[in-house]
Amino acid sequence: MIGREHVRNGHNPTKTWARMLAGLALASLSTLLPAQVSLATVVDLAQRNSSTVKLAEADVMKAQAELSRSKDVFMPSAMLGSGLPALFPSVGFTGGVPSILTGNVQSLVFDLPQKQYIDAARSGLKAAALNLKDAREQVALSASTAYLEKDTVDHELEAAQSQQISAERLVKIEQQRAEAGVDPLSELLQAQLTAAQLKLTRLHLETRAATLSKQIAVLTGLPVGAITPDHASIPEIPQVHADEPQRGTFGIASAQMLAHSKQKMARGDALSGLFPQIVFNAEYLRSTTLLNNADDYYKKPIPTNNFSSGFSIQVPLFDIGHYAKAKSSAADALRATVEAEQAQRQNEIQIAQLTGSLRELDAEAEIASLKQQIAHEQLQSVLTQLELGNGAANGPGAPAQLSPKAEQLARIDAQQKLLESMDAGFDLAKARLSLLCALGHMEDWLHELHAK
């Protein structure tokens, strides 16, 4: 495939809805006949069906709840209750005032570490959102690779079947030549060996196609064999190189944001033992003498309506358990930071490996394409000579006239070179996609895919 220097980033909502409706229509059928489905539809179905994406979405929802919980501590919380005994009246002095209704309002007013916890939750939400994008990209990469390979194998199977037909014709020709005494028995055996080897190649391709059909079915949630690749729906893969500016992958960005969240959490735990905490409280109590006359135990009657409010200040002095928690949080932050750095280094190594492999695969694809063109030209030359003759007289030293055996051998060789060229093209496309993902350009591919 030939890369493009610029990639369109447009998104067509009409096409997106059309693909979604097509996917839902396919999924709603219990029995499906093989039908051509575009690559964009397969990617969309795979992303909606992926358990990895669903788990990442659940992590986003959890992170949203954690952020809300960290901020809601500053919002007043209200509670209602009743101190009225449920079964029997109180006897004697209980130390409390019987109440028919109690109300309490409480909220955090000042807590410096809580600001760090809110920042940690906010960073955690960003990390979860980035991880969701990375999960969707990884699923898109897997679906695209499987789709490209299935498309390649389907075309290879067509070439292998033509190749096997030529091999069977070659065996028949050699049988006739061997019976006529023109060729020795070894030539017939060699033709039979060639036919057997080509049959094995075809069986390998059929097994590979079946495995890919199962893989695509698992990715999309559709029945096995329901999807036939549409080659026209595959856009050209953009050519990117390691020397281009790296955008960074969503996976690395998620790891870095998670490390930032852990650092904020550790900072909050470290500050919680140093700064006071201020809490606002308000309480209402409606007393009753229905079951216990508490006024008998006090100098003055207890009012029916009682209300109190104020601020409580807690100053930390010594809490060894919280000190240990702060150390544990600091260790978690250090681990997350190192993991983010490790992910960055591993991605750089992967880019270097893919860049080297890409150069080799590009050269191999070029060689395979040239061999395929040469084999095609040789086949055309053989067909021409068989039709018109070798153009030379039958005198001494003239080249022998070609036989039908030469035609089948040329056809087998041409199909073999075509198979090798298609394999090399797929390997090159797969490496380009992997490098796109490693360099952070996978979004370009997805935009091009949805715009096609």
Provide an overview of this structure:
The structure is a single chain. By secondary structure, this protein is an alpha+beta fold. The protein has a single domain, classed as Outer membrane efflux proteins (OEP). The protein contains 9 helices and 6 strands. The chain has helices spanning 13-28, 39-49, 51-72, 112-179, 185-220, 250-271, 320-388, 404-438, 442-451, and strands at residues 35-37, 77-81, 99-110, 227-229, 277-287, 305-314. The strands form 2 sheets. It has a 4-stranded antiparallel β-sheet with strand order 2-3-5-6, with no helix packed on it. Strands 1-4 form a two-stranded parallel ribbon. α2 (39-49) packs across α4 (112-179), α6 runs antiparallel to α7 and α8 packs across α9. The chain is elongated, with a radius of gyration of 38 Å. The chain starts with 12 loop residues before the first helix and ends with a helix. Mean pLDDT is 85; it is low at 1-13 and 24-32.
Strand content: 5-15%
Helix share of residues? 55-70%
Shape designation: elongated
- Integer average pLDDT: 85
**Count of DSSP-assigned helices:** 9
SSE-based structural type: alpha+beta
The CATH architecture term is Up-down Bundle
The low-pLDDT segments are: 1-13, 24-32
Strand order of the largest sheet: 2-3-5-6
The level-1 CATH class? Mainly Alpha
At the fourth level of CATH, the homologous superfamily is Outer membrane efflux proteins (OEP)
The largest pleated sheet is described as:
4 strands, antiparallel
Helix-strand pattern: HEHHEEHHEHEEHHH
Radius of gyration based on Cα positions: 38 Å
Return the domain count. 1
